[in-house]
Amino acid sequence: MRESFESLRASSLYCRRCGKAMPVRERLLLILPDKEIYDYLCTGCADSLGQREVSAGELLQHRAMQRRGHGRRAR
Ligand SMILES: [Zn+2]
After folding, report:
1. How far is the CA of 17 from the centre of ligand 1 (A)?
2. Residue 40 and residue 22: Cα distance in Å, rounded?
């Protein structure tokens, strides 16, 4: 194992420079109060192949899924 990929959910995207679908590396580009923006970099030539915005709601959902215990409604 030369590189440690924490998440393998990154998919492959077509890279024009490499001329084929290449695995991409997800990189946190920008953190905003209500969302985070990720950049997808080609692992072959490090070209940016796309970006993805993750809304705050999506992040919360993601974290909620990581926590096994479901929230009890405490008033
Ligand atoms: Zn490439």
Report:
1. 5
2. 11
Q: What does the pLDDT look like over 15-41, one tens digit per residue? A: 999 999 999 999 999 999 999 999 999
Distance 61 CA to ligand 1 centre (A): 32
CA of residue 50 to ligand 1 center, whole Å:
12
Residue extents of the structural domains in the chain: 12-66
If 0-12 CB within 10 Å is exposed, 13-18 middle and 19+ buried, where does residue 4 land? exposed
Ramachandran category for residue 60: left, alpha or beta (phi over 0 → left; psi -120 to 50 → alpha): alpha
pTM, 2 dp: 0.62
Q: How far is the CA of 26 from the centre of ligand 1 (A)?
A: 14
